[in-house]
Amino acid sequence: MQSTALLPAMFHPSTPTPRRPVWPRKLVAWLLAVPMLLATARAHHGFDSSTSVRLLENQTVVIVRMSPALLSVLLGPEAPADWTDAAFQDLRPRLIERSKTFFTLRSADAPLAATSAKASLELQGEIAFILKYPAVSFPATVTADFCKDFGPAFQGTLTVRGRPLRAIDREGPVLATLDLSPTRHTLEVPAPGNSPAE
């Protein structure tokens, strides 16, 4: 019978088998959740908004996304303590009516009235509005009235796009952009072909 003393250490009966580290389930779950939490935090950061205006052939479409904090300030006492789906559904009719006052669009110096409005609560927690107006004539201006009364904590962007150049394009070229602030919230839109962004 061969002595175990002559066997390599890895085969020696008295050598314990190395064990893989066991990660606590809670720690693993937390590590997996971190990216989602960070993404959610960015979506809810401060008084944020982003607006895209699309100048189409037969209509103008305004898509604006707002953080719950920003919309709560706009609503005042009407705002819910927590933006749950149930709270949003309860407020949806009032949100739709209120959203029609968020912007002033002027086409050839004449104001345009919103023809329709929709509101939705997105998975990231932001509230999105889709507003439709008649097609614009130039010169045109877009004013974000909702940000006039905010302080320096407000952050927002306004981008105006022209008609898609090709049938396969989902969006048209950028005609004008503006970083919104309480003092800078009106954007003059040049006619396509005269845009410095092209």
- The count of β-strands is 10
Whole-number mean pLDDT:
80
Largest sheet: number of strands, sense, barrel closure = 6 strands, mixed
Number of domains: 1
Question: Outline of this structure?
Answer:
The chain is α+β, with helices and mostly antiparallel strands and 198 residues long. The chain contains 3 helices and 10 strands.
Structure description:
This protein has helices at 25-43, 68-75, 85-99, and strands spanning 47-55, 59-66, 103-107, 110-112, 116-121, 127-134, 140-144, 154-161, 174-180, 186-189. The chain is an alpha+beta fold and 198 residues long. It has one domain. The strands form two sheets. The protein has a six-stranded mixed beta sheet with strand order 5-6-2-1-8-9. It has a four-stranded antiparallel beta sheet with strand order 4-3-7-10, with no helix packed on it. It is globular, with a radius of gyration of 27 Å. The protein starts with 24 loop residues before the first helix and ends in a 9-residue tail after the last strand.
